[in-house]
Amino acid sequence: MAIVHELSWSTSRARTFDSCRRKYYHDYYLSWLGWGRNADPERRKAYLLKKMTRMPMFAGDVVHRAIAEYYARRDQGQTWGADDAIQWAVTELRRGYKESRDGGWKAKPAKSVRLAEHHYHEARIDEPSGEAAKYGKRYVDRITECLRTFFGAPELAQCRDVQPGDWLACEEMSTFELFDTKIFAVPDFAFVDRQATADAGGATAVQIIDWKTGAPRDADRFQLEVYAFYAKEHWGVDPLRTTAVDVYLGDGSLVEVHVTEDVLQRALATIEASLNEMKAVHFDADASKGDPAAFPMVPESEAARTCSSCGYREMCDRV
Ligand code: SF4
């Protein structure tokens, strides 16, 4: 069945929409259909740039995959501790770095690591000067710190030890519907909280966990609130029986959202407003590439802050 271009919503899509409309256009419209080797050159270029990542994101992804690997191995009855996970993750980080640097990503761009730092020849990735080694060490240290927290923090014992039969989700992308629109969500980990369920006389209580490898952001809390709707749609859990937690693995801090009726109504209103803004500029990217002018770039005055880490710099002439 052919994939059809349609408007969908996710918290990351909403963040991109708010940070730069042109980036939003490149991510969700111009890059559409760019996956074919014989695609329209402009669509293909946008698609390849969209598939790039940066070291902070790549390192975060490696930590997420290491934690998912821990759960997969536990499910198979294997023991996999902090040292095993760190070794696995650092090896994966180095493999991805080399794949990007040596051009190995070209064979399968959608499934490979291509770093914007290499594409744009950034000074921080310069090897002869030693800058690349310093930069890489920063992320080896971050990965190590995050995984030591996951395996060692007493506050995370419940997450680590929960029985496989109580797991509900682990890094799986799913969708649900709100306002007749597909909403994408990828909870990092979710499980039935047996103790809270028993305390409530048997009404199922669920915990949804988001692993964070960077610093806290204002948008983090909103993302947790969206998961409460996900829990209702996917597992039929009363959103008010859902606790969503951001775990900042860098320093071990936890931020919990206890869902209330007010929280739900506020989140719903925010999603609706965001969707309405997106609908106002939506067009069918199967039929045309649209008008980029309808999606303005961030002003020059904000370029240093917003464009310096964006993968589309060459398309916007902001290299
Ligand atoms: S380079 Fe700047 S203007 Fe262009 S898409 Fe990226 S953030 Fe937006």
Automatic annotation (TrEMBL):
Which Pfam families is this protein grouped with? Answer: PDDEXK_1
Q: Which InterPro entries match?
A: PDDEXK-like_dom_sf, PDDEXK_AddAB-type
UniProt domain PD-(D/E)XK endonuclease-like: residue ranges:
8-317
Q: From what superkingdom does this record's organism come?
A: Bacteria
This protein is called what?
A: PD-(D/E)XK nuclease superfamily protein
Q: Which organism is it from?
A: Saltatorellus ferox
